[in-house]
Amino acid sequence: MFSNTTFLITGIADKHSLAMYVAKEIIKQGGKVICTGLGPSAHHKNLSDKAKMFLEKNFQDFKRAVTQELGSASVEILDVTLDDNIDSFARNLSDKNIKLNGLLHAIAMDKTIRNKEVKPLLDVTKEEFCDTMDVSAYSLIRLTHYLLKYNVLQSRASICSLSYIAAAKVTFHPYRNISIAKAALERITVELADELGRSHNIRVNVVRFSPYMGSKAGNATLNEKDIETSNKMSPLGNAKPMDLAYEIVHLFRPDLRITGEIRHVDGGYHITG
Q1: pLDDT class for 114, splitting at 50, 70, 90?
Q2: pTM (2 decimals)?
């Protein structure tokens, strides 16, 4: 289905990342993937030794996971908080004559979550709020901007991002700060669907997934009891990572006329009270 196609996959941290399952399915369907991860680059200025070590370890862990799970898939360093990095990344793809048929935005960050404790919203600083919004929502706009600027993202391409029900309502496991960023991401999705559909015939959708502890982000907040509760609440039980992969691969299919959608892959969790 995906012969002669290439997709950009962001948000892989390790083999359990939801983005990894999507990448695997794309390859299984005959497509190619380019995976991005956070790492040290020339665009990082005045870093402390501790920060350099963190970035280097993060990139090596990411690269190792991609190699083990996806074989020879391409890996690139990308820090979506740095416009210069996004610009050079997109320009480099253009120089290599790489054309993208789709993009998975699976990036999120929230420093207000520590040791499975979520900071009360009234205690969140302006810097914490803006940093979360920048990485988790605004980055979709900037990344798309530069990929189009260098004619890397093709007409009729498909963009998908990841969200969850907490973007729409308070759940029994509140996220507070990151929930607001995910709500913004969903609104960005709808606005881009209109804008890019008219200008480039590009589709933009977002998928809300079940509570999931397999990823680093989910494990930072959720516990086993939370997963058991959502599993009981969901008519079909919690969705599996492959359910998400199948849905995104479906949305990546060429020539679909599905856009501006907030889809649910959560076993029906979203219809419960």
Answers
A1: confident
A2: 0.95
